Amino acid sequence: MRIAALLVAISIIFSSTAAFADDIASAQGVIRAQEQAFARDDAAAAYSHAAPAIKEIFPAPGAFMSMVQSGYAPVYRHKSFEFGDSKSEGSWIAQRVHIIDANGEAWEALYTLEQQADGSYKITGCSLLKAEQAA
């Protein structure tokens, strides 16, 4: 009986770990797809990864892209873009990204994503700080 209970507990731990890993991989895929859309100057593709609340604030892809270009230059253009730590809670994921901008300066971005009714993840926000401020 104890062995069966132990096996059930182990399977639950590993299945939740696998689900967590799948969710993180999905969220990172969304962030990476948006990053690549920025690199191609594809406003429509970049905008497609934004959550509904972001689309309410920026109702057109062009307005969204202008905001990113002016307010998030290290996200828009950079030398490197590497994923850091992730945290998942309920339908939300927080993902750190280490960025080296076009001028060689280090930045920390914290993306937040929310799982949508269809199971996909959309970006709800991005906070950006110079790396020395983030420490």
From TrEMBL:
| Signal peptide span | 1-21
Q: Which UniProt keywords apply?
A: Signal
* Superkingdom, taxonomy of origin: Bacteria
Question: Which protein are we looking at?
Answer: DUF4864 domain-containing protein
Q: Which organism is it from?
A: Bradyrhizobium ottawaense
